[in-house]
Amino acid sequence: MRGAATGVHGVEGSAISGGASDVAASGSATSDRSPEADGRALAAALGDRDPIRRTARIADILTNLSPENVGAVLAAFEAGPRNDETRSHFREFLYAWGRMSAEEAMAYVLDSDSEFSGTRERISAISGWAASDIEGARSYVDTVADAGAKQWMRYGVMQEMLYSDLQGAIVYAEENDKSHARGRQLAKLAQAISEQRGVAGLEEWVAGIDHDSGGNDLLSYKKYAVGITLDKIAAADPQAAADWIGEHAGQPYLTAAGLERAARGAAGPIDAELDWLAGLPAVEGQGRAIGERFEDFIRSDFTGAGEWLAAQALGANFDEAIEDYARSAARDDREAALAWAERISDPQLRAKTVERITTPRRG
């Protein structure tokens, strides 16, 4: 077991009422018990099969975490059951430890010898630090050499900024490099903007992303942000989303993925989504978006997909959809599939589709 250093700042908070009998109902849990008693109480709580009582007992101990009992609490966690519940409570412990004694908590989670030193644990510890000292946490993250760890720790810091300094969080989020962490961060940021500022706030946010700056691949960042924003706009007002798309036609941040996401938000059944996509002003990526959603339509309702496609005024935006339908139809009716393939407007795609349909399968 790794003991925790002493001489750290305490953490304020009152205990949760209604805990088990071996946990104080109010006041400081450490004022009338020894650190060893807190360790034993946590060990017992981790084995409690009642989830409500277990959570209350652990919360009481973590609320009263102190420099005196942190080592005993850590030891109890390390010796505790190996399951998802323990791991979740351990991350809560790291949040409390990071809030109380930030550098010690970070040293623990960044130690590769520790079993509890994964990405989620690092996020918890740095989030706790940010909850008590946002500037200190940001400065610390800047010193982290491991690029991957730094990305996720920035995500943790940003989480704490969302409801205390949303504008600061917006600016800070752009510092992260393109990564899975940044994608998660964007989704979290967009949710907070939507909750606090509504659709208008989301539109203002994406307008403020300078995708031409050349730094940090902000074009990719803006593409993802636009997709999220269109989803929210379309859910509230499909026509407003269509108008927004028309106003931004030709912009590099307007992508097929963004259009497809907006379609899912704008309509209900898949044929209604396709109607919405087909009715958009002509924009780049429209055909790809129609093709992607139509492929799902084929899988769920081949007959319905064919009926929908037959009712459209076909053109270049339907080429990918026709290709998918013709290749699927070829399994049962090659002649009908070839007839569909001949309606593809792009000569190269048409020739490629015909070749695939007419070439005998191997085996």
What does this protein structure show overall?
The chain has 363 residues and is mainly α. It has a domain at 165-236. The chain has 19 helices and no strands.
Percent of residues in β-strands: under 5%
Characterize the biggest β-sheet. Answer: none
Stretches with pLDDT under 50, minimum 5 residues: 1-31
Compressed to H and E, one letter per element, the order equals HHHHHHHHHHHHHHHHHHH
- Structural Rg: 28 Å
Shape: elongated
Average predicted confidence as pLDDT: 88
Total helical segments: 19
The percentage helix is 55-70%
What structural class do helix, strand and pairing data support? mainly alpha
Kindly report how far apart the N and C termini lie. 60 Å
| Strands, count | 0
Task: Draw up the topology in text.
Blueprint: H1 35-46, H2 51-63, H3 70-78, H4 84-100, H5 102-109, H6 119-132, H7 134-143, H8 147-161, H9 166-173, H10 180-207, H11 218-236, H12 238-247, H13 256-266, H14 270-278, H15 286-300, H16 302-310, H17 319-329, H18 334-341, H19 347-358
Helix pairs in contact: 1-2, 1-3, 2-4, 4-5, 4-6, 5-6, 6-7, 6-8, 7-8, 8-9, 8-10, 9-10, 10-11, 11-12, 11-13, 13-14, 13-15, 14-15, 15-16, 15-17, 17-18, 17-19, 18-19
Task: Record keyword descriptors for this entry.
mainly alpha
In short:
This protein is mainly alpha-helical and 363 residues long.
